Every structure is written in C-alpha cells, then in structure tokens.
C-alpha cells in the first residue's frame, strides 16, 4: 500500500474559506463495489452477482467477485483513511453476507467482518457510518418477487434488527437505504441495474415497498439503538430544471420531480404521496390497493439526518414532437424509461459545461441550489452530503503518481457550494466524497474511476491521487483554498 506523500501534497492558499466547527469529513463506498470475497464465509449471491454474470449487462463482463478486495485489505484501507485525515467512513453492509437468504438467523462469520471493520475504524479515530442497503438484495428474495413484493420490506426489517444487535453498541450513525430511486426505477423500470427488469408498474410498487422498508427499519433502529444514535436515509435527489420557462417544460420538470424526488420525500418526510404523482401514475398502479393502513405512519418515522447525493443536475423539457426520449438522462442507455408516468419528457445535456467521464455536466451551483431547496422545505432537518464526486480517465504516471486536476477542480467547486449553503443558514453537517477508492461502477464495470485513491486491479496496489492529497489538506484545515489547485502530479 502506498502511503499519502506529504512531499506532493498541495500547498495551502494564503486565505481559506472555513467550514463550520465539527464538520464531518468522510468518504464512502458500497459493499458490492469494493469488498470482493463474493463466495467466502457463507455469502450467497445478490442480485448484482446474478446481473453481472448475465451476458451484455455489465461492461466487459466485469463482476464484483474481487472488486477492490476490501474484505481482505480493510486494515490497510483504514490505515489509509487515517492518513488522509477522514473523520468518518460511510460503508454498506452486504445483506447476503450476513443473512444469505434474506430470512432466518444471521451468519456470524459475515457479521464478524463488519465487527472487525468497525473496531478498526474506531481504533483509528474514524466514525463508522453504516448503510444497511446499497442495492445488493439477496437473490433468494428476488426469486420470491423482489422489491415489488411487500414481503421484502418485512424481511428488511428483520435484517435491520440483526444489524442493530450486532453493531448497535459501536456504530452511532445508521442509514437505512442508499438511493432507493435507483433500486426501484433503474432496477425494475429501465433495467440498466440489477435485477434488470423493465416493468413500470413493478418499479412503482418497488418504490413503495422500499419506502416501507425504510420506515420499518427506522422504527426498529429507534427501538433497539441507544437514544444517541442517529438514523438517516440517503436519497439521490434530482435537481430538476426546465429547459425554458414555458408551461410545457415546467410541467415536464414537475413530472420528473414527482417520480424522481417526491415519491420518496413525500411519504418519508411529510407522511403522504403527492397527489400529482398519484394522478400521473394511476394508469400503472392502484395506489389505494398498494398503500395499506399504517404504511404512511411507518414510512414517516422521523429521521435525524437526511443524506443527499448529488453529481449533476437534470435538465428536461416537453418534447417538440410529443414523444419523449428517456435514454439520454444520465442513467444509462435503455429502450425502457426509468420514469414511469413521465415517459413523454425529453432530457437534455446542458451546453457550455465541462463534463466528467460519465458525460455528466459539472455544475456546482446545482448542489448549492439543491441543499437550499431541501432546507427551505424541511428547515428542521439536518442534511449531510453523503455522496459527491466525479469519474475521470485517471492513470499512473511512470513516476508512480496520479495527477487528476479535473477532479480537484470538481471537488473545489462542489465543496464551495456546500460551504456557501452552510454560510447561508443551511444545516449541512458533513461531506462524504464518492469514492474512497476506484471500484466496480455497477453496469460500467471497472471502466469508470471515481476514487480519490487509484486501484490497480491486477495487483490491488493503492495509489492516492493528487485529489486525495488535496482533500487531506482541506480536512486538516477544515477550510477550502480560495482558488482551485491545478496541475498537481
């Protein structure tokens, strides 16, 4: 493992923009993307194991079988986190590693890995932030119908109780779900994510049952954990903008906001699904049958923190010819829409913006606007940026260094957006870089690199990129340089 090298760390600017005292500085990963050890210690297949083995679903036929081998190298990885100065590490638990069939007793060998990881983090002075679900549903539960089936939400509640019992004495912050929009609408709508189904009605049913799973799990965590524990959910809220101020474009934005955001924030934070969403999707599902007595009360179990993931805004319009094109919306190529009830919407790439390797427009103002909008709508709810980052075409130079000035510029702009939001009164308490290290990027396989640390997958050698050194300096000073640092090597 390569240590962080102070000799190539960027020099601090003479003036700096401070973050609030006690601001949490972290990085995030997900189990299937980094752990590997896909068949060890009792772990059984998840939907992503199955999906990645299905020809044509993942770039280059890549799988998460080895990934970044975090399962075996977690001690070195935690030592690297400590050198970077991280104060928190957001990881996810692999459901099939601890409860292989999604039902019944836990496998202690699987739980032991997370006990060891958490102990290592605490020893290093890094707060563990545990996410219960980051898309790796046990395949057995998908075989029984998956998230479109109500029983899956009840199984998730049982799983949450297992994890609370195993780690509740040492993990103070818990996240129920990561980006349920992706689980529901990319997994069951467009089919570009596992399990690869293309059923609009099933996607909406999955969304409700993910909401219910969150509520059931939040209630159990509240009952089982110490009173000081923080309970959260992480949403990839779409910062939706209409292409023009015309009524048709504004209505297109409303539709995407409904099925992209308010399908979750409505029941979770306000105890009700928005009426326009119900009307837009009434031809697909019978909401009066789907939502049962007591569901909304469970789903709206209060959370202590809302996690917000942001990468790029969403620009939409009404299509000129009356038909929509949802294939160029930043969520993978598919002939099927991930936006049920909003198929007749056109998506656009913002002009005049630099782009990441994902072809996502770089727009820090979108993050500032998103944070301020959420704070305005829910002023009493603390926020945490739980994912933000960018993929670029990184490589190791002959001198063994990774220069990524584009990522540094990206991070500088987005961290400044967070700082500005905090200065303007938004209660934003921390930032988690996506991602700690290069990893399996879902349907893109290993072709996209989001990490601050470069991973050579053939050797598993870790090399901190220039952005890792830059981020470490920001953390050390709890402040942002007044200008981006570029040209680092």
UniProtKB/TrEMBL annotation:
Entry-linked Gene3D superfamilies: Glycosidases (3.20.20.80)
Biased composition (Basic and acidic residues): 324-334
UniProt keyword annotations, A-Z: Carbohydrate metabolism, Cellulose degradation, Glycosidase, Hydrolase, Polysaccharide degradation
Known EC number: 3.2.1.21
Pfam hit, one: Glyco_hydro_1
GO molecular function: beta-glucosidase activity
SUPFAM superfamilies registered for this protein in UniProt: (Trans)glycosidases
Classification via InterPro entries: GH, GH_1_N_CS, Glyco_hydro_1, Glyco_hydro_1_beta-glucosidase
Sequence segments annotated as region (Disordered): 319-341
Recorded catalytic activity of this chain's protein: Hydrolysis of terminal, non-reducing beta-D-glucosyl residues with release of beta-D-glucose
Family according to the record: Belongs to the glycosyl hydrolase 1 family.
NCBIfam families: BGL
Record protein name field: Beta-glucosidase
Organism of derivation: Streptomyces pulveraceus
Highest classification ranks of the organism: Bacteria, Bacillati, Actinomycetota, Actinomycetes, Kitasatosporales
């Amino acid at each position: 493992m390569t240590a962080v090298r102070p000799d190539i760390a960027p020099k601090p600017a003479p003036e700096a923009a401070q973050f609030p005292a006690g601001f949490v500085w972290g990085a995030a990963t997900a189990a299937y993307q980094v752990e590997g050890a896909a068949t060890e210690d009792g772990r059984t297949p998840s939907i992503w194991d199955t999906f990645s083995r299905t020809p044509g679903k993942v770039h280059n036929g890549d799988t998460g079988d080895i990934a970044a081998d975090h399962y075996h190298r977690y001690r070195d990885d935690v030592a690297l986190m400590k050198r970077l100065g991280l104060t928190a590490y957001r990881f996810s638990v692999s459901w099939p590693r601890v409860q292989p069939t999604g039902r019944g007793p836990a496998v202690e060998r699987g739980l032991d890995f997370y006990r060891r990881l958490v102990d290592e983090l605490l020893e290093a002075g890094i707060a563990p932030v545990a996410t219960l679900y980051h898309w790796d549903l046990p395949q057995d539960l998908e075989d029984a119908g998956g998230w479109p089936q109500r029983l899956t939400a009840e199984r998730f509640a049982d799983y949450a109780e297992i994890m609370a019992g195993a780690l509740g004495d040492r993990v103070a912050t818990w996240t129920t779900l990561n980006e349920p929009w992706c689980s529901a609408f990319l997994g069951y709508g467009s089919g570009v994510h596992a399990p690869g189904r293309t059923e609009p009605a099933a996607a909406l049913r999955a969304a409700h049952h993910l909401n219910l799973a969150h509520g059931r799990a939040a209630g159990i965590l509240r009952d089982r954990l110490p009173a000081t524990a923080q309970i959260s959910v992480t949403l990839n809220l779409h910062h939706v903008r209409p292409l023009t101020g015309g009524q048709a474009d504004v209505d297109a934005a409303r539709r995407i906001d409904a099925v992209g955001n308010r399908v979750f924030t409505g029941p979770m934070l306000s105890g009700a699904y928005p009426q326009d969403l119900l009307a837009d999707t009434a031809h697909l599902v019978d909401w009066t049958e789907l939502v049962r007595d007591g569901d909304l009360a469970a789903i709206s179990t209060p959370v202590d923190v809302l996690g917000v993931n942001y990468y790029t805004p969403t620009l939409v319009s009404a299509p000129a010819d009356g038909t929509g094109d949802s294939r160029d919306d930043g969520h993978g190529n598919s002939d099927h829409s991930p936006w049920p009830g909003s198929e007749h919407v056109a998506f656009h790439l913002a002009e005049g913006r630099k782009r990441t390797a994902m072809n996502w427009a770089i727009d820090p103002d979108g993050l500032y606007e998103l944070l301020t909008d959420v704070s305005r709508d829910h002023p009493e709810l603390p926020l945490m940026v739980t994912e933000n980052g960018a993929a670029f075409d990184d490589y190791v130079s002959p001198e063994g260094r990774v220069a990524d000035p584009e990522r540094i510029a990206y991070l500088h702009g987005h961290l400044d957006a967070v700082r500005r939001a905090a200065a303007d009164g938004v209660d934003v308490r921390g930032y988690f870089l996506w991602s700690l290290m290069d990893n399996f990027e879902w349907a893109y396989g290993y072709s996209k690199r989001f990490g601050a640390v470069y991973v050579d997958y053939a050797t598993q050698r870790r090399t901190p990129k220039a952005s890792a050194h830059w981020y470490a300096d920001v953390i050390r000073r709890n402040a942002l340089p007044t200008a981006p640092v570029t040209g680092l090597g």
